[in-house]
Amino acid sequence: MAMLLVSVRSASEAQAAIEGGASIIDVKEPFRGPLGRADPSIIAGVIESVGQRVPISAALGEIVEYTETTPVQHLNYVKWGLAKCDSRWRERLLQAADCWTRFKCNCLPVAVAYADWRQAQSPPPTAVWTFAQSSTNWNPLAYGWKVLLLDTFTKGKGTLLDWMSLDDIRRMIRRCRDHKILIALAGSLGKKEIIALLSLEPDIFAVRGSVCRGHDRTAAIDSDLVRQLSKLIEVPMANFQLPRTISIGRES
Question: Cα separation of 125 and 36, whole Å?
Fold first, then answer.
């Protein structure tokens, strides 16, 4: 059983997603790429609208384009893509994450792996998992990388299952579970793909296009479509422990 993350681009979309049963709200701007960063005012508006009802994450763009800004209070997760990265991608990620996690904003970094990594010119998923696992083991008392997201960089050209086999995804899920890293699956997932992936028992399904009107990822969120997917993967919140915050100096 899994939780449902819905990516939104406005406070009104966040409300529609929550009404449909979303367990996590993610803020991003799809016109700016797969992990397009929303304007600060949009992020602030979503945070104010959602409050403490569910965890909130934000996409911050590709790490090669990232410029440090003042961390935002009340975000639970932040993530960066690794498209067009050079050999310094690990260092870049650690530096970016350190800025957020040590600002006392209780925010966890998410490691993102693109299944179509050759097209994205990014590290392969196995390298990203190794980074997340080794970073957490190297300093287990700090924030660690407790969540890994499998996504696709090229949108409109297939789903996660067109770029990774079920067996490869299953192996990645087992690796994450063995090291207590949560795994989220994304990549243009619709009902058909989610049904195929349910038996692998990922922790989170992350969607946008499949819950937008007309299944167009640039259109508005439809709460009825969210509700359909939410019921498909429904899990009692009491039975699911999602790390929402960190505390520097001790394991969270």
Answer: 20
